[in-house]
Amino acid sequence: ISEYPTIIRLIHRNGFKKESYILSVDVGTTSIRCHVYDKEAKIRGSCSTKVVLLYPEVGHVEMDPDDLWKGFISVVKGAVQDAGIQMHQVEALGISTQRGTFTTWDRRTGVPFHNFISWQDQRAADLVKSWNRSCTMKAIHGAMKVLYFVTRQKRLLAASLVVFSTQHVTFRLVWVLTHYTQVPIDEGNCCFGTIDSWLLFKLTKGHLHATDYSNASSTGIFDSYQMCWSGFLSSLVSLPLSIFPKSLILINMITFMADQQAAMFGECCFDVGDVKITMGTGTFMDINTGSKPHTSVAGLYPLVGWKIGSEVVYLAEGNAADTGTAIKWAQKLELFSDVRETSAMAYSVSDSDGVCFVPSFSGLQAPLNDPKACASLMGLKPSTTKSHLVRAILESVAFRNKQLYETMLRETRIPITKIRVDGGVSSNDFVMQLTSDLFGKKISRPQHHEMSCLGAAFVAGLEVGFWRTREELKKLQSADDEFSPQCADKECTGSPNGEYVPILQSWERALRRSMNWYNKP
C-alpha cells in the first residue's frame, strides 16, 4: 500500500521508544471505545463516544457512516492523548466491530450510497418470513437431506436446516438492492461491507476492500465449512458476488475481529467446551466447538471464532437481542435513575408479584426464532411497584440465558468446561446470581468488562510479538468475581430450584402470548 493516513503511518514508525503499547478500538452498537494497553494488559488511556442510532421508519435502525468514521478517529486520538504517549509507541492496532451492520459505497469515490443498516434492523422481516415458508426453501431442505443421507457431509445437513434471520445480512442486503435505486450493482463500482470493511477501506484510502473471517462468518452469506462466500446462497437470493470483499486477510499491525469472537478471545476461552456470555445491548452466548463448525437445528449459528496462522477455531452461538435495550427502556420510563440501583431494587422484594416481562423489542431469537414477537409486560396489579417491575425485567434476562444455555447443551453435547460472563449487564449481581442458580453452574465475571476491546488487543499483540503465547495471556487475567448456585437442595443439577419453577412456567406462558404479535391479519 503506497499511502496510509496519519494513524497507520505513525504506527509503522516504531523504532526508538521508551515503552510500547497496543491500541484497541471497539465499535459497538451504542458507543465507540478505545483503550491503550500495556504489557500487563492494563488500560493506560481511554476515550469513548456515543453512536447515534437513527430510526427513519418503524423497524428501521441505521447509523451515519461518516459520523462513525469521525467517532473512530476521535477516540483513537483521545485515548492516545489520555495515556500521555505518542503514536509511534503503538506497536499494533486491534479493532473489534459489531457484526451484521453493513453499508454499500462507491468504489471510486468511497462515498456511501446509504446509511449503515444495523443488525437490529427489522425491515426485511416479511421477506425473511416468506422465504422461510417458500416452496423453494422446502425443496432445498428436502434435496439437502437426501444428499446428506448419501454423503454424510455435515455441511449438507446444515444446508437442509438453514433458516434465514433478520439479524443476518442476507435479506437486509436484498432489501437494499431492491429498494435503493442509487446502488449501481451492474456497473462494477459498488462495494458491500460490514463495519470492519468500511473502516479498512477508509484507513487505506480505498486501497483495500477486504474483511476478516470472524466478521464474514457472521453475515449469513459465508460458508463456514468451505471458508468462502457462499455461491449457492448468493445465487439463491440474487446477490452479486462482485460487490463482496475479495479477500479475507489479517493485515500486519492492524487486526480486525467481530465483537463477540473478540470477547471470546479476551476471556481466554481457547479450549473446546469453554463458554462465554456477553450481556450488552443483546446477550450473546458462545461455546468453543474446536476445529469443526457446529450444525444446528434450533437456531445456534456456526461461526469462525478466529483464524490465526493455519489454525481455525469455530464457535456455536445463540443470542437474545434486547438485554441492555430492555434495561435502558426501563430507565427512560424512570423506573430507576441509576442502573446500579437495579440489583438492590430486585432484592428488596421477594418476587415480581406475578409480573412477567418479555424482552423482545427486536423479536425473539434462538431457540424460538420469531421476528414478529413483541415486548410485553403481563400480570400487572394495583399492588405492583417499581421494584417488582425491575425484578421482572432482570429475571427475564436470566430466563433467556437459561433458554440459550439449555439449547446449547442439547444441541452441541459438548461438556461445559467453564462459563465466563462479561458486558455491561454482567455488573448486575442479581442477574449473575439468578443465572448461576438456573444453570446449576459456577459462573465467573472478570473485573474488566470490556472484553471485545481486550480480545482485539490480544490478537493484535500476538500478531506482532507484543505477547508471545496464549498461556501468557491467561496469566494476565485479573481476579474474577465468582457466583455459585444457591440451590434449595444441596445438589444443583441445572434445573431451577422449586421457588422458580412456577415463575418460569408463567414467564414461558407470557412468552408464547407475545409471539407472532406483529403478523399481518
UniProtKB/TrEMBL annotation:
It comes from Oreochromis niloticus (Nile tilapia). Residues 21-266 form the Carbohydrate kinase FGGY N-terminal domain. Keywords: ATP-binding, Cytoplasm, Glycerol metabolism, Kinase, Nucleotide-binding, Transferase. Residues 276-461 form the Carbohydrate kinase FGGY C-terminal domain. One of its GO terms (cellular component) is mitochondrion. Pathway: Polyol metabolism; glycerol degradation via glycerol kinase pathway; sn-glycerol 3-phosphate from glycerol: step 1/1. One of its GO terms (biological process) is glycerol catabolic process. It comes from the Eukaryota. InterPro entries: ATPase_NBD (IPR043129), Carb_kinase_FGGY (IPR000577), Carb_kinase_FGGY_CS (IPR018483), FGGY_C (IPR018485), FGGY_N (IPR018484), GK5 (IPR037444). This is Glycerol kinase 5. It is found in: Cytoplasm.
